[in-house]
Design goal:
alpha+beta, 2 domains, 7 helices
């Protein structure tokens, strides 16, 4: 009876993981098929081996083999790797069937909860990671940060130069940044706030001065200083 409950719980969990979470947020149908097939396959093998004495060891070995195969195939993003291991874990937990039953169901619910919170778009929504190709060879860190913040319209937290081509005048940078809010003042680039000194010899603009008032003619000054009498004819 417990086996039927665990199989039903795993099918419900993998459906929530792939269709309600992954497909809704990332829209990759090919990986949905991969997650579903791999989860059901691990569930079937783990369930068949759970009655044997070496069932747990074989299940963990299967987990390791599938992990190596997946990581050595086409490149996946880090969040896709997280979904892959979650699908593996759900099938393995349901197939082995830890006693008591509520503990198995709780572990499966914990996997779903972690993925729901960790991959939620509202968690650190402004942070981005991108590979940027600049049409200039820039080896100065302050200038590089200023250029990247101008191009990305964000606050650069980390910039690692992957390729600096002086011949073709090109720079490839691995950038981690946060999107700048629309209401934030863009006149002051962040690289000036990171402790980078102003280059030597740079001129500091002088404060704006008011235009000098032109002197008035002497006749106007005399006319203003002499009062007129009301009784003069």
């Amino acid at each position: 009876m417990n086996t039927i409950i665990l199989i039903a719980a795993d099918l419900a969990a993998i459906t929530i993981l792939t269709l309600a979470l992954y497909l809704r947020r990332h829209r990759r149908r090919d990986l949905v098929v991969s997650y579903l097939g791999m989860n059901v396959g691990v569930l079937a093998v783990a369930t068949a081996l759970s009655g044997s004495a070496a069932g747990v060891g074989l299940g963990l070995g299967l987990f390791g083999v599938l992990s190596i195969i997946r990581l050595r195939s086409t490149e996946l993003a880090q969040h896709e790797v997280a979904y892959y291991f979650s699908a593996l874990a759900l099938g393995l937990i349901a197939g082995i069937g830890v006693e008591p039953l509520w503990l198995t169901l709780s572990l499966m619910a914990l996997v779903l909860l972690v993925m729901f919170v960790g991959d939620n778009p509202r968690v650190l929504p402004a942070y981005r990671h991108q590979i940027v190709v600049l049409d200039r060879a820039i080896n100065s860190e302050p200038e590089l940060y200023a250029r990247l913040e101008e191009v990305l319209n964000g606050t650069v937290h980390s910039a690692t130069i992957q390729e600096l081509d002086m011949v073709n005048d090109k720079t490839i940078v691995d950038v981690r940044y946060a999107v700048r809010p629309l209401h934030q003042d863009l006149s002051q680039p962040r690289h000036s706030q990171l402790g980078f000194n102003q280059p030597a010899g740079a001129l500091t603009p002088a404060p704006e001065e008011l235009p000098a008032q032109a002197p008035q003619p002497a006749s106007q000054q005399t006319r203003q200083s002499v009062p007129t009498s009301a009784g003069v004819a």
